[in-house]
């Protein structure tokens, strides 16, 4: 039944649901790229503090696999979070969380295109429902937007984050066989390093905001829960049940994110949000129920 994997993925998605809320709370208190840098700074400090002996032990393998570890850090950690924290400046936290339900569909498409992974008709139906939910959210329930192709700028930026995380999830198949602490620490270090140029860009554009008290609270939450705890649990889930099935659990991010957005920020829950969430939950249920016997 893979109960531990399911529990790990549920906790990870709960933390990520809170990440979108944290990003919204950060607006005006810490700028997006500054938040991205400090998030990974604290994550790196913590993971390195508890992992130095293991990192030294794994270094020979790490050295041979630096390109893929760098790729995971830049695409999965920097691009995704930088785009998400930018998106919430222009759209709601609910929209940002619901749009992440598109990620499993993209994971499926990439896996099928590259590896011809086995897939059932039930999974195709589930992924399609998920995609429809994401589209409904992106156009704010306004079907006329499909004709005029007008999408909120923040929602468009969020699509960059969605594509980045789908690519990251698929790329985990090439992760080296190293301890989870090392697999977390090295990409996180690259994320910290490569987020620095983005901070300098923010500064040169006169958009940088140094964290105030509320900003530091957001930084710590994202650094500990959304970075370390969620990422490690997600990696363990992918190792246990594979990228396609683990990716389905990302559909829970909209559920948790929506509930937290309403409860903490007081955002308004619209009918199109409810429809999108129903499609996301229906998609995950159908796809998981109809998964092939071999789907890794």
TrEMBL record:
The chain crosses the membrane at residues 38-56, 68-88, 94-114, 121-139, 145-171, 183-203, 215-234, 246-265, 271-290. Residues 4-137, 153-286 form the EamA domain. The keyword DNA repair does not apply. The keyword Zinc does not apply. Keywords: Membrane, Transmembrane, Transmembrane helix. Belongs to the EamA transporter family. This is DMT family transporter. It comes from Neorhizobium galegae.
């Amino acid at each position: 039944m893979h109960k531990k994997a399911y529990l790990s993925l549920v906790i990870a998605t709960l933390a990520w649901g809170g990440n979108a809320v944290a990003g919204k709370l950060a607006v005006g208190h810490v700028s997006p790229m500054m938040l991205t840098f400090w998030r990974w700074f604290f994550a790196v400090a913590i993971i390195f503090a508890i992992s130095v002996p293991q990192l030294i032990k794994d270094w020979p393998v790490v050295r041979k696999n630096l390109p893929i570890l760098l790729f995971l850090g830049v695409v999965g950690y920097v691009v995704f979070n930088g785009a998400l924290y930018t998106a919430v400046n222009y759209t709601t936290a609910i929209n940002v969380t619901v749009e992440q339900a598109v990620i499993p569909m993209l994971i499926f498409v990439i896996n099928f295109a590259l590896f011809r992974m086995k897939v059932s008709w039930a999974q195709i139906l589930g992924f399609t429902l998920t995609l429809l939910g994401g589209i409904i959210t992106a156009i704010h329930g306004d079907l006329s937007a499909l004709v005029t192709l007008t999408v909120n700028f923040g929602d468009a930026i969020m699509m960059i984050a969605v594509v980045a995380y789908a690519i990251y999830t698929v790329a985990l198949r090439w992760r080296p066989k190293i301890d989870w602490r090392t697999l977390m620490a090295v990409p996180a270090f690259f994320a910290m390093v490569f987020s620095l140029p983005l901070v300098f860009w923010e500064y040169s554009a006169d958009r940088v905001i140094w964290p105030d008290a509320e900003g530091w609270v957001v930084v710590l939450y994202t650094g500990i829960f959304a970075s370390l705890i969620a990422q490690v649990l997600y990696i363990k889930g992918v190792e246990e049940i594979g990228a396609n099935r683990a990716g389905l659990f990302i559909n829970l991010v909209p559920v948790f994110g929506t509930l937290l957005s309403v409860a903490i920020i007081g955002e308004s829950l619209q009918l199109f949000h409810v429809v999108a969430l129903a499609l996301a939950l229906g998609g995950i249920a159908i796809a998981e129920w109809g998964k092939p016997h071999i789907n890794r």
